[in-house]
Design a protein that fits this description.
This protein is an alpha+beta fold. A four-stranded antiparallel beta sheet has the order 1-2-3-4. The chain is elongated. The chain starts with 5 loop residues before the first helix and ends with a helix. The C terminus is likely disordered.
Length: 463
């Protein structure tokens, strides 16, 4: 039995894996976005802030509720001069003190400090969610803008090519004495407008590519190959504006972040009150090892255990100013929360209205494209009966291309408006991008020339 060459088997396996049409599934938009949310610097920085805040909260808790050990000591020459003869000393003094301190009661000051640190961490957790949803909206918008601008550029190129062929046909007809110079000028006017549209489309493509590179951290060509999700998420959006507003107030992470700021300042105000007007009680255990200290020429071992009360009170009652300032900070935070809530409501309302406007616009533009197609079909039939000129047919083709382009843009705008509404409501998550049944986000960029311009030119010359 002949054994297969291992190198040949390996090469064959590589060919199978790299052959187009293999079972390797293309990367989806959801997978790409989830990758961004894991490795983008904006998210990593926000998560690092959370980790740092968690460490500070742990530090604050341990500092407040676990014992503190303080070790001190000295070594030196101690000289004591006494008035009585023979009582002066000059000794090599040594001492080491070990002191343990444990907070017993401070009327809630330590608890308030720990609570402030805990809420600060929760606030930063909310900031991560804000950054994630913002980045996801930026990524999905950049992706669909790239697809939209790419489609528009293709349509614009078709329009330019179509009008150029139209101009060639009319030039031939004029040369043969069967055309009109005014038609040639009309074609040139249309061509100038189409070329301007193509230039604008090219600029939009270049801008979209740069946005995609910044967000996805990869080449725009790769991003363009991502498999888009279906449009089923649009069906789950609120049917009325009040529902969208209610969800936004409840789930918007930016609003939740300000709620936490308000709670933090409440705890901070409590801490200021306890610090300014309440004593602190702590237990102290102290051990002293002395050798030739304070003129005593011997080793002394001392142990102390006691409860200490500390009550620093500024006689100018500066604590009242601190409490008042904390109260003003709290009021400012509450007013910022109220203002931001109104802003969130406004954003949700505007996003909801924009979505409905985009839907209505897309419906009208798709209807326009359908009418333009029907007109072109009828005009071609009339052309066969010599009831239409070639210029009418080619103008109809140009109008159809532009209508298809506008409809493709409108369809994409509906998706972007949907994602924007989800972000305003605080509900934009990667699960929105599931690929249950992929649906194209734009009208198929088909060739609309059922009757090409080349045969038309030949017919015009042969007449």
């Amino acid at each position: 039995m002949k054994v297969a060459n291992p190198l040949r088997v390996t090469l064959l396996a590589l060919v199978v894996c790299l052959t187009p049409g293999s079972n390797v599934q293309a990367e989806t938009l959801r997978e790409a976005v989830e990758g961004i949310l894991q490795r983008h610097d904006r998210i990593l920085a926000a998560k690092a802030d959370v980790s740092a805040s968690g460490e500070r909260a742990e530090e604050r808790f341990k500092t407040s509720f676990t014992p503190t050990m303080n070790v001190s000591g000295h070594y030196g020459q101690e000289r004591r001069a006494q008035m009585a003869p023979g009582t002066s000393t000059n000794l090599a003094s040594r001492e080491m003190d070990i002191r343990f301190t444990q907070l017993l009661w401070d009327f809630g000051k330590a608890n308030a400090g720990v609570e402030v640190a805990r809420i600060q961490k929760e606030q930063l957790d909310a900031a991560v969610e804000v950054a994630q949803q913002s980045l996801m909206l930026t990524a999905t918008t950049a992706y669909y803008q790239l697809r939209k601008s790419n489609n528009v550029q293709k349509f614009a190129q078709q329009s330019v090519d179509n009008i150029k062929r139209q101009g060639e046909v009319e030039d031939i007809r004029v040369a043969l004495g069967r055309g009109y110079s005014t038609d040639v000028l009309q074609v040139k006017t249309q061509l100038a407008g189409a070329m301007a549209r193509e230039v604008q489309a090219s600029g939009a493509v270049a801008q979209s590519k740069e946005q995609v590179r910044t967000v996805f951290l990869r080449d725009a060509g790769e991003v363009l190959q991502l498999v888009p999700p279906d449009e089923s998420f649009l069906k789950g959006l609120p049917k009325n504006v009040e529902d969208a507003v209610a969800i936004g107030v409840q789930k918007n992470p930016q609003l939740n972040q300000l709620r936490l700021v308000t709670n933090m300042l409440k705890a901070q105000k409590t801490g200021v009150e306890r610090t300014s007007f309440f004593p602190t009680v702590q237990g102290v255990l102290e051990r002293k090892f002395k050798d030739k200290v304070q003129g005593v020429d011997e080793f002394v071992d001392e142990t102390f255990g006691r409860v200490e009360l500390s009550y620093p009170l500024n006689l100018g009652l500066s604590g009242m100013n601190g409490v008042s300032a904390a109260g003003q900070d709290l009021e400012a935070a509450q007013r910022r929360y109220d203002d931001t809530r109104r802003t969130v409501e406004e954003q949700a309302r505007i996003a909801w209205h924009n979505l409905n406007t985009a839907r209505a616009n897309a419906e009208l533009l798709n209807s326009q494209a359908s009418i333009a197609r029907k007109f072109l079909d009828l005009a071609r039939e009339e052309r066969k009966m010599d009831k239409r000129t070639l210029l009418d047919i080619l103008s109809g083709e140009t109008a159809l291309i532009n209508a298809l382009s506008d409809a493709a843009v409108a369809d994409t705008d509906v998706l972007i408006a949907g994602f924007t509404l989800l972000q305003a409501m605080g509900a934009l998550e990667p699960s929105i991008l599931d690929n249950n049944k992929p649906v194209s986000t734009s009208i198929n960029n088909e060739n609309v020339f059922k009757e090409s311009s080349e045969p038309a030119a030949k017919k015009a010359v042969s007449k």
